[in-house]
Amino acid sequence: MAVKRMGQQTIILPNKPAILAGAAWVGPKEGKGPLGSLFDHVTEDESYGQQSFELAERQMVLDAARAAIRKAGVREGDIRFLLGGDLLNQIISASFAARELALPFLGLYGACSTMCEALCLGSMLLDGEYADHVLCTASSHFCTAERQYRYPLEYGNQRTPTAQWTVTGAGAAVLSLSPGKTPMARITHACVGRVVDLGVTDANNMGAAMAPAAADTLLALFEDTHTAPRDYDLIVTGDLGRVGRNLLLELMNSQGTPLIEDRCLDCGLLIYSPEQDCHAGGSGCGCSAVVLNACLLPQLQEGKLGRILFMSTGALMSPTSSLQGESIPGVAHAVVLESPKAERNTRHDF
User: Fold this and answer.
1) 3-state class of 169 per DSSP?
2) Is residue 347 in some structural domain?
3) What's the whole-model pTM score?
4) Among 109, 183, 257, 344, which one is most buried in terms of CB atoms within 10 A?
């Protein structure tokens, strides 16, 4: 009997794996946004001193990973598993960074949901006592994503109003079962999302493709845990952007579970300012990864937030599926994060 399951999709984590430390590396555009001062490192240009944008993304992953390990106060050899992924063919940014780190590696592809997918699986490995330290990473790069999914930058194609700007960034977090210091946050529940497809075919409107999956995962978690939106200080989605967030609010209203608008945030809307002309907002695996590590975890550590529901959303498209005329499936994974300062507060138990 699966004693750590709650309902259909949610895993309860009795040992409450800790997030020891996180790191966020971003590009120059992200560094000029509202969260610019919070990131660990802002690159001077998109190339990051490398010969290609792809090599730049790989180096960002490696540097963010090593920074997170250093901030956690552990050695690379203490990490039992590295879980990570990105948007590039065969997740080459994560796998080639893993080659340098020489750690047991589980490569993940969940499109822009990859950071939360890594947190879900990493926390399960820890709670099951299969490891004592796990490293989770996710990355994306505007220039590499444009080259793979749309057009070379030199083409200069116009972007539609529903389009989102792929974040140049890499996020890394060290999870631990037995932290030697006060953690930044603890993971109490993980909800694994289902693939949902309502037939969206416009690759420039990923928010609409992902919003139904986000609603599906939220409803599942609320039902499984017997909670409601009011039980969380914030519900933070990964990169729905303006279009997707508005659609999520409509979908949740239609299901009789309205979200509290000022407590429902989206990483794709937090990372850029309107003046940066990113149309519907940010996207990419790195979007939720860097906002989580640079912005949300410090607030949990300081006790400014007690409990949040963090959910990364992904559009499971590829150039191959698009050429075959396929629609864009979406998926969303979620974790419940608690402040270490809220551990003695029984109102956070369910």
Assistant:
1) strand
2) no
3) 0.94
4) 183
